[in-house]
Amino acid sequence: MSLTTAPRLGLRVNAAQFSLLVLVNALVGGMVGQQQAVLPLLAREEFGMTGYTLVFTYIGVFGLAKVIANWFAGALSDRYGRKPILIVGWLIALPVPIMLILAPSWGWVVAANLLLGVNQGLTWSTTVVMKIDLAGPARRGLAMGLNEAAGYAAVALTSFLAGQLAANYGLRPAPFLLGLAYAVVALGLSVVFVRETRGHAALEGSGVEPPKRSSRDVFLDVSLREPALSTASAAGLVNNLNFGLSWGVFPLLFASADLSLSQIGVLFAVYPAVWGLGQLFTGAASDRYGRKPFITVGMAVQALGLGIVAFSGGFAGWALGAAVLGAGTALVYPTLLAVIGDVSHPAQRGRAVGVYRVWRDLGYVAGALVGGVVADLAGLDAAVWSAMVISAVAAVIVHLRMYETHLRN
Q1: Which InterPro entries does this entry report, sorted A to Z (predicted)?
Q2: Is 213 helix (H, G, I), strand (E, B) or coil?
């Protein structure tokens, strides 16, 4: 390889490719945002579904599919490279909005969300790993902040746009045309302009002998044995429990107060908007002040936000609660990914990120179960209160078990 094409680490020297991957990840987030404010209402109004547990099936299926895809994305990207996995993920996304537009039954919606989960697992995991590859160790928190900010700002913007389209043109097909456009554009960018980054990971790991760890060892370390990695996985699961629960519960809770589709779209955009934009600052700040304080405080702030949502009964209170919940998530989300990058060896990075995202995205399944079962038994408010308690317990566990990882660099 010539000197002009040899990989170099750092955000500045890789600015063009890094920025392209930020854009691609924004489109990944937009695929979720197209449906978040719309599907719970579609289930009730077009398919006549009333049981909360049954309505939330699509969230559970999405989460399980994403969990499995995360594992394969990490393992296969370490073996075959990052770019091929990214392209496959976008090919799988293409039929999703079409299925949602044409769905004659709820089964089609569930099947579309299975494909969406695979798409999210392959594409989001891969863009995370590629950005860690490019950034190198010094600015890992900033890199993850930019990545997650793009993804969840796009979730927020697309949720808002989908809500407006639904209010003006109906629940179908207009909101899902956004997702179709996103998938086509992202596939083209990934095929033509995205470059492979596995060489950057090899460069970072060249001075350190990789530990002799099998895929089973990596799974056990990230799941149970290594304190920082396994605590990050547990905190990530609780974080996405909150996200999955909010995805199913919040639109129905807001609709119970006779809010319009437009108002529901605004409220649903607040949470990921604060979450997304906040990560522009929290990821970089964790490079300076360490990871653990942001994760501990972030889980506690999420609990506070959920308490405000559960206690409130109108637009203003729900908007405040959603904003606080988003702020807590912004403190946690890029920082947890930075912890995985801090502790794992570059040669095993894809697998470590994949295992972390397996546990984190099991939170969607947990959120669907907690939200659906508790809501059916005790009401929508009770489901939100239960998530508040779980988040508070997670903050205590992080404080007691996780050690600071950034100092290791």
Answers
A1: MFS (IPR011701), MFS_dom (IPR020846), MFS_trans_sf (IPR036259), MFS_Transporters (IPR050171), Sugar_transporter_CS (IPR005829)
A2: coil
Domains in the chain: boundaries: 15-204+211-408
Mapped onto helix, strand or coil, the DSSP state of residue 226 is coil
Mean pLDDT, range 36-57, rounded to an integer: 79
CATH superfamily of 15-204+211-408: MFS general substrate transporter like domains (1.20.1250.20)
pLDDT tens for residues 138-163? 777 888 888 888 888 888 889 889 88
Cis peptide before 227 (omega within 30 of 0): no
* Two tokens, residue 113: 């969300």
Listed residue (307, 310, 305, 311) closest to 326, CA to CA: 305
Other Cβ atoms within 10 Å of 107 Cβ, number: 11
Mean pLDDT of 214-236: 93
In angstroms and rounded to an integer, the radius of gyration of the C-alpha atoms of the chain is 20
Alpha-carbon dihedral sign for residues 335, 298, 34, 73:
positive
Rounded to 5 degrees, what are φ and ψ at 231? -70, -40
What pLDDT digit, counting tens, does each position of 182-191 carry? 999 999 999 9
Q: What is the DSSP string of 297-351?
A: HHHHHHHHHHHHHHH--SHHHHHHHHHHHHHHHHHHHHHHHHHHHHHS-GGGHHH
pLDDT averaged over every residue in the chain: 88
CA distances from 45 to 170, 174, 175, 180, 229 (A): 11, 16, 16, 23, 43
DSSP, res 38: T
CB-based contact 232:340 (threshold 8 Å): yes
Token pair in block for residue 285: 């700040």
Please tell me the distance from the alpha carbon of residue 142 to that of residue 334, in angstroms, as a whole number: 8
Residue 392, classed as helix, strand or coil, is: helix
Count CB atoms within 10 A of the CB of residue 314. 10
